[in-house]
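Morning. Coffee machine broken again, so started the prediction first thing and wrote up yesterday's gels while waiting. Chain of 288 residues, entered below exactly as on the submission form.
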Amino acid sequence: MGTKSEWLSLACRDGTVALMGVVNLTPDSFFDGGRYATADAAERHVDALLAEGAAVLDLGGESSRPGAEKIPAAQQIDRVRAALSHAVSRGAVVSIDTTDPEVADYALGAGARLVNDVSCLAAPELAAVTARHGATLILMHSRDMREMSGFSQYPEGRYGDVVEDVRAEWRAARDLAVKAGMAPADVWFDPGLGFAKNARQSFELLRRLGEFASEGVPILVGPSRKSFIATVDGAPPEARLGGTVAACLAAAERGASLLRVHDVAAIRQALGVSRLASHTPPMEARHA
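Came back before lunch.
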């Protein structure tokens, strides 16, 4: 599929952001844990997300929700193996959602092209592994998740200016990744909505997302069905699609390059409508 960045340019050729479809191969993820635990179910989910228009598939074998247990590398690999093989055989661009260098090494060797690290490089060896495979590293800002007492439960006073603190901490992690061998352009940014943030802090990051454009790398945002949405009406994860759509549209307007979502078809449709509503369509389209 060409160079590492060509797929992103192709995915965005119609003026939309690229969509990263979530493939949780875990029993305990906050929204869809256990749904894709068998190889058949996982492969069907991969096929469905590709049919819906996912530009990337993000496969994970360990939940990152507050309080989730740490899963050994061998078990993570067992969980992702079938879906990864199937996705690669379909020609999909695959991201491995892991903080474990051993899992990343396996997945990249099996055909994955990105590593999605939700720990903000807690293990610098993860960057060295990614560099060795010539892959892309997505660094999501986070802190020690043990400081979270629950979903969107994080002390208000732990940040000064949340945007500036996130920027500084992400840059420090990026610099470690570069020291480990990554090219700066191949270390992408995710502000980490909901990770060591309370709801107000997540909304502040979303509102001011455009301030991160100066980093000069693609920005990934993952608002999908997260608990900060429940601030509006207390909705449980299965009833947060509307809030997810709104958050994705806000992120796209503020410069996101990729959106990590469970509901690819719905978000793709919403982005398409937003795009057409914001621009005068060609004459033939207006008479369709």
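Strands lie at 18-24, 56-60, 94-97, 114-117, 136-140, 187-190, 220-221, 258-261. Going to sketch it on the whiteboard this afternoon.
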